[in-house]
User: Fold these one by one.
Assistant:
Number 1:
Amino acid sequence: MADKSRNDGAQNAAILLKVAQTMAKLGVSPFPRNYELFYEALSGSNPQLTRDVAALGAQPEQNRIEQIGIKHHLAGFAAVAADTIRADTARSISAMSHALNDGIARKEAFAALLRGFIDRLESDPVVGMSDFADAAGQLRHAVSVFEREERAVVNMMGETVAQLGGLGSDIETMRKASTRDPVTGLANRIAFSAKLAALYDDGNATGPAALALVTIEGLRDLGESHGAAVAEKTLKRLAPVFRKSVKKNDFVARIGTDEFAFVFHDVSADNAEAIAQRIRASVEDVQIALPNRTFTTQTLSLSTGIAMALTASGSADLFTQAELALGAVRSSNKPGVLVFSAAIGGRTEKTYSPHAA
């Protein structure tokens, strides 16, 4: 299992090297969000994204890259999307402000014209018919223009409200994209980090909780043997299994290629271990269909390391303890569940190498 971890690390390094080489060849700026985009494109997990990136060609403008990242709701482009939304909102509000100011000016001009006509009638009751007709004609024309421009303002207000509603929808989509894994629909590592931090208040655990770090054993081999599409389909099948295996107030996130994190609330170590065992059994019951093999299926399993919030000094320590427990399980070459203890920490700290992406 240790050899497999080293092989996984070497594979990730090779992919990152390919991403860097591709970006350098195309003349793409080395921004972190661009690395994310090209990593997703080269992984082949999103065919449409791959096609969009391939269509960029050499020396692509950064704004075209950002349009693709925003279109596919990549987390790294959330800030760019937010800036775009802010700019669009500012333009919409500015245009409406100008339209309303113009409307106020037109109303004031019309009111002045009307007051002048009334003053003239009051001061000269026997004003000539021709003069009266001229003034009435001016008022009639002013009313016609005023009504037409008011309708235009009303229409513009409707369009602006609709546009602002669309921007609100974009903001909600961006918020969800920044905290959701695009393949499984589960929470992602960003959301997991926030959840982990919320388990502690000034270094003290907010309640009895357990963190379970999980590796899906066999998923990477499945992807290497049968393609990324099969691995992605498998993840989509396992996601509802994970959701149904935890209570409503519990939490599950995908934090790496084949790594997941669970937070169980109001549990003891024995409870957490029992829950993890049930999840592992549920995963082992899933039959994975293999391409071009009608009568052949494959099963996967889980390795799980658990740490308890009340015995850790903070979120970072809790994560480290769960990692060490997971490392001890994986080094045994047999999928299983293990709760962290001081003995595990002393036994594994010299040999364990972090595997999480």
Note: Residues 189-348 form a domain with the Alpha-Beta Plaits fold (CATH 3.30.70.270).
Number 2:
Amino acid sequence: MANLRKEITELGLLKKSPVKTWVKVCILFAIVGGFYILHPILPFWWSVALLPITALFTTTLAMTGHEGVHSSACNSRFGNILLAAIVFPLFTGMSMEFWRDKHNVKHHAHPNVHGKDPDIHNWPLAFSSEDYAKSGSAVQFFQRHLQGWFFWPLTMVTAHSMRIQGLWFVISHPFKTGKKKRFNKLWSIDLTMIVLHFLLWFVVPVKLGVSLLSVFLFYVALWVLVGVILSMIFIVGHAARPVIFEYDENWKLQIETGRRIKTGPVGRFFFVGLDYQIEHHLLPSASHFSLPKIAPIVKKYSLENGWEYEEIGFFKALWISTKHMSKAWKLEPIVIEASSQDNKNTDELVSGI
């Protein structure tokens, strides 16, 4: 990795793009703000028809907070925390510290690793035969026969579920840490912004004359769609890639459990860097604006070392990932060995989908 990082650094591709990031964030806020104003004005069915587009831009804006938590947006710690706080707890109502713990600390350190990556441990789903073996008989029946059919309906609760988990994370934090860290600045910012989130989403519209029922239904329906769109973006990055039981080389793990999604310039705008999952995992502090230039270098590096670098289109990845969920319960986790140039178990896993 030293030579790879040196080459990327010398090309100036690890420099942050704070101006581009804030311009994109402001544009997205203007767009979603316009949509939110339109919805109570439009006739009901026009509002319903516009909701998926509103959800798409809402999802994109929400994902810019991911850049702030990774410190990949701004040069200063203050700038990154400001972005993360505005987008995550204030705009989405989800704790930025919960996301940092779940995503940065656990997922990035152990992508697709059984027992360590929270993204492949979502009850009642089974992501490997190990998950299946630990489930009860009723849940095993669901995993064998119904999991593939119910996966997408279950994604409708993704955004709301993460918000609830984040709330619990913030509430329980003071009881899980030492006295000196109970009420730190980030915890205070998180809690304050989450409270403001609900005031802005529910109190302000009602004060402006919108009925509470209308606000509540809009809020629930919008974030249901956001959950589905988020899942479409998340699943193509790692699903149907090997689930790992053991590994002895972290950099190879980051490459062989991820997938590069070919999207084009329009798709790149909405993915906010997650179409370059491999590059993002290798260099999480790199700005998503630099990832298209970093990708060819990483691909060349991977092929030279005999490591598998998967690169496919979005709809193909979505189809493969969806099919994978119906069979994931019977797939064995594999072992990644640094000395192995071609892992037979990996080939069997992918070909069996």
Note: The chain has 17 helices and four strands.
Number 3:
Amino acid sequence: MVEKMPSVTEREVLAALSKVQDPELMRDLVSLGMIKDVKVDGGRVAVTVELTTPACPLKNKIRADVEAALRAVPGVEEVGIEMAGRVRPAAKEAPAIPGVKHVVLVGAGKGGVGKSTCAVNIALALKRSGASVGLLDADFYGPSIPLMLGLEGRPTPTEDGKGIVPLEKHGIKAISIGLFIDPHQAMIWRGPMLHGALIQMLREVTWGELDYLVVDLPPGTGDVPLSVSQTIQASGAVLVTTPQDVSLADVTKAKLMFDKIKIPVLGLVENMSNFICPHCQTATPIFDTGGGRRAAEQMDIPFLGEIPLDLAVRVGGDEGKPIVTAHPESPQAEAFMTMARNIAGQVSRVAHGEKSEPEPKPAAGHQCSGCGGC
């Protein structure tokens, strides 16, 4: 006589999944509302896991944990898991920019560290991950976003004449003061003029529905970074530095600025971390090595990743073909993708009322594989 397997119920499935935690938010998937469309058919169970962002850095770990929990339920013979992602807005008052769920500021303590290159490629990497993204160039004295994206033409007014339609390129929406002025004209503006132009760009551009609006700030801690930071409800700021001491000293000041105006710092990016010879593939730390990671540890903020000093990244920026879209399978593009996933994860933490936190250090002797489990 064949023993009949016990039937599985939806309540048992949800009870099992209530023990699975989101590794970043440290809350269970059921209470977070991430479990959707539970279907039970005999011994087969199918669920949809709706992540808090399409760019979730721990997607594979969450999937593995869900599968293990389901297979441990008596009577489950087959498991089907669909992974989805939906960026959820922060649990706070209405956003200052209608339709925009999260504003991510990209700043630096000094110029010349590749801040705009990082802002462009972060925005495109978030787009590649499945999010809807916009890019605002707030670096009024050096608006390089039009060149880096290969933008052509000028923004047009909306049909009612009350707004500005941003340009679109590589799948993202973009706006820059550089699209409104002669590219050879010097921006000799005082603080009040800069503030007025910034407010106009923030309030009159019709972004539509965006998961993330990436804002490329001017370097330093002057009028424009303060105006941007105080005008919009940013979900957090990403700091860009290079490994040498002079850059690290300046980025510490930028961190203190964001602390004072109560904007969470999502983490630190080390750009130009090393130069990889295109002939012998030897990595040379031209600007020192490991400074960004040490600085992040000292400031107690997440270290978001390293970007190598690479000719392809520079050429892509000059030709309006960013590395993330021009060579998406390259190691350089993957470095930006990893960084964008880390940023999205930190934004999710902030949106759920959690503090952005550094990744835990691997145990002694552990070789990190980049799986996200460390």
Note: The first strand starts at residue 35 and ends at 41.
Number 4:
Amino acid sequence: MKFNLFNDGKNCLKALGCALLLLLAAPRVQAQVTVDATIDSLQILIGEQAKIKLQVSMDANKQLVLPHFPDTLITGVEVLEEAKPDTQLLNDNKRWLITTEYTVTSFDSALYYLPPMQVLVDNKPYMSKALALKVYSVPVDTLHPDQFFGPKDIREVPITWSDVAPLTYSSLLMILLGIVTVFLILRYRDNKPIIKIIKIEPKLPPHQAAMKKIEEIKADKNIQREDPKLYYTELTEVIRTYIKKRFGFNAMEMTSTEIIDRLLQEKDQESINDLKNLFMTADLVKFAKHAPLMNENDMNLVNAVDFINQTKVEEDPNAKKEPTEIRVEEKRSKEGRIVLIVSIVVIAAAALIALYMVVRNILDLFF
């Protein structure tokens, strides 16, 4: 029993020690900072460039100070550019990975030791690893000096299209703007009225307009099968519109019976029987939910066409046709004159700019 108690106490002490070590180590793990430096090229020629990438991994919301090199990293290695630091968020924004780059070059051939870079995190220094850079000189064959060539003579360079294209385009633009400016000035001085031409779409005769609508209804096969009410509504509306324009009474506001009675005063009974059957079927479909057969729909469509053909009035070929265009003359208002003056000034200024471009291109090309 004593032995067991001793072992249990020993185990408890070990557990407490491990817990204490974890508690002490946790802040260090949480506050860990890593600094890494890499170079994209270990060997360059004189005058070539290399990039040194510096990466710092640290806890979020810490203050970081990156190294700054105004012009020289070490003697012989110049700093050309320092890139703006880039920040990546890691572990749900608990860690930051900050990256920056330094562009370096050298004009002296040698093997350079690049010392570790120091960063400050909350004023505490951290160092990166050291780097190396080998700079080579350009080889020159001094044993064969005859292969070196002296300066060349001055040669006349031929003129190409790319040389004269700006001059050509600016000249064309100047001429076009000049013509427009002169035209507007003449219009302003003459003070001629503004002529507008309004196009008028000719009206179709009543029977032609009705036949066009019926052809559209006939082309839609689905409406006859799926919605007879809509089919007869559209068909009777075409007939009512035709009757209103052809006979001169408002058939749109009249019942089917009233329309038939009114037409009997104009036409004989025989020519209206088919139309009477059409209106009767339409009323049954719209108000009594009658379901007509497909051949009945086609027959009523034919009846509508026959009625239109029997009652239409052909156009007189000798009659004077309505004009398709109207010419309207309007005197230029004060506002119109102001707009014209502003247009002249703007276009004239653009023409002067084009003239300047022409002169400049001529000087650049020949002088």
Note: Residues 1-6, 25-30 have pLDDT under 50 and may be disordered.
